[in-house]
Amino acid sequence: MKHELIIVLDFGGQYNQLIARRVREVNVYAEVLSYETPIEEIIARNPKGIIFTGGPSVVFEENAPLIDKAIFDAGIPILGICYGSQLMGYLLGGSVARADSREYGKTDLTVDKSDPLFEGVDVSSVAWMSHTYYVSSPPSDFRITASTDTCPVAGMSNESKKLYAVQFHPEVNHTPEGTKMLKNFLVNICGCSQDWIMSDFAKDQIKLLKEKIGDKKVLCALSGGVDSSVAAMLIHKAVGKQLTCIFVDHGLLRKDEGDDVEKVFGEEFDMNLIRVNCEKQFLNKLAGVSDPETKRKIIGEEFIRVFEAEAKKIGVVDFLVQGTIYPDVIESGTKDAAVIKSHHNVGGLPEHVDFKEIIEPLRDLFKDEVRNVGRAVGIPEFLVSRQPFPGPGLAIRVIGDITKEKLDILREADYIFREEVKAAGISKGLGQYFAVLTNLKSVGVMGDERTYDYTVALRSVDTSDFMTADWSRIPHEILAKVSNRIVNEVNHVNRICYDITSKPPATIEWE
Ligand SMILES: Nc1ncnc2c1ncn2[C@@H]1O[C@H](COP(=O)(O)OP(=O)(O)OP(=O)(O)O)[C@@H](O)[C@H]1O
Ligand SMILES: O=c1[nH]c(=O)c2[nH+]cn([C@@H]3O[C@H](COP(=O)(O)O)[C@@H](O)[C@H]3O)c2[nH]1
Ligand SMILES: NC(=O)CC[C@H](N)C(=O)O
Ligand SMILES: [Mg+2]
Asked: pLDDT digits over 360-403, tens only?
């Protein structure tokens, strides 16, 4: 059960969890720890290697996050990335300066293949850069191992001390040779034996959950979606009947969804499941509210109140389990990352919650990793590969204020879109696809009569991690059919648009 460990030391960068994920992809277990973790604690964990992340700070400015220099003498291989590289350079006696021209985006890179980090890597390739400062001269016992036109020390190393640094980001997809470099660090330099697989994550979590929960009772917020199904399965395997799943039908679900979830979970799994119908409660609270963040907060709070009420009926329940995953956490904002939108289960949580603890076993994972855990614990493929559906449901797909009438219009339009995508056999390739009821009315003509009705937007994206996404190139004939059916079959819709923006700059959902 004990795995070789890589510690990703967090200096506030945007891609920290992505680094951990890339390491896990090479079958090495990684954990992200704050840079403030005492170095005795880091060493006591006996890591095979440490990766310093990027970060927004400037090493020589006041309050910049630093680390005790003793870490470099612990005999543990270290890879510094971006800010991490500057930190290594600065602390070991090199110099760091503001670059003459800052580099942002794809940059041509030249590497010295004789460096163990770049073994088997093309001498000339492209790297993703995002920096204003750089190492202007490396520490005296380092040599330069990579450069770009404007960055003299894009890579440096001290092979005998096993210290390596790069100014660019090997962890992002835009650095095509990045994975090879990380693998070189992990396998060749740290000597990792690649002993970690996703099914181990499931096993480890089940064991941890068993210890944590003991003989206490647990509620799991189950939506029927991928994340909460996987979370529920882990808990179920850990504590069996001590678990009760609560499925909230808040009136913001898709057509037939409530019945489908009840049916699937009633039939597929031997779990205690309670369906709570509370459409009125949610719609009353949401009446007249049009601000997206306010909607999310109201929904987050109501969810919890429903769970608390159900817990009271069952008796003492100590734990609430949610299927929170990493993108939910990062977009809701952290100490260092900006709030993009408050996911109802994170940023939308009320301050006071009746439960002793909220358990989120999937909090560090990306969607595709969660799917793999699901497969490892035997959840059927049709459930594991489903498209996600956000907890606040259609409330964030009806733009502006919400009414039952608008929700019903959207439900029908969305159903037609999903049905046609399925019929065309293209659903597997699409990350997420749905309809949005815009708050816009426009003029049309139907049966020689003037209409003044709603515009429905269709949204479909290709993505695997849901952090970035591109709009799907759905064939025009399919879109034509969907458009035709919606305006013909759904009352009060007279215009259909297709959303052709990627994420960023847009997000997947409209609110
Ligand atoms: N209708 C619901 N009833 C109970 N819990 C819910 C409901 N909707 C969402 N949740 C809780 O909020 C969490 C986050 O929702 P989210 O939609 O991100 O995940 P999911 O529904 O489990 O998976 P997916 O992303 O595939 O839809 C869920 O994992 C679940 O714990
Ligand atoms: O459970 C959820 N609660 C929320 O509040 C929430 N907001 C967005 N999403 C889902 O997250 C993914 C990324 O969405 P965005 O690009 O719109 O931020 C997409 O899959 C969205 O559907 C949510 N899921
Ligand atoms: N992405 C980063 O780590 C940036 C490091 C540093 N803040 C710079 O601007 O150079
Ligand atoms: Mg969902």
From this structure: 999 988 888 999 999 999 999 989 999 999 999 999 999 999 99
Per-position b or e across 268-304, b if 16+ CB within 10 A of its CB: ebebbbebeebeebbbeebeebeebeebbbbbbbbbb
- Domains, the chain, ranges and CATH? 5-189 (3.40.50.880), 198-384 (3.40.50.620), 397-498 (3.30.300.10)
59: helix, strand or coil? coil
Residue of 219, 220, 222, 223 with the most ligand 1 atoms within 8 Å of its CB, for mutation: 223
Cis-peptide into 504, omega within 30 deg: yes
Q: Which pLDDT belongs to residue 337?
A: 60
228 is in an annotated binding site: yes
Summarize pLDDT for 312-368 with one digit per residue, the tens. 999 888 999 999 998 788 777 666 566 778 887 887 777 888 888 999 999 988 888
CA distance 419 to 398: 20
Q: Name the closest-CA residue to atom 7, ligand 1.
A: 223
47 lines ligand 2 (CB under 6 A): no
Query: The complex's ipTM?
Result: 0.88
Q: Which atom of ligand 3 is nearest to the CA of 81?
A: 3
Which residue has better confidence, 408 or 261? Answer: 408
- Taking a C-beta distance cutoff of 8 angstroms, is the pair 372, 411 a contact? no
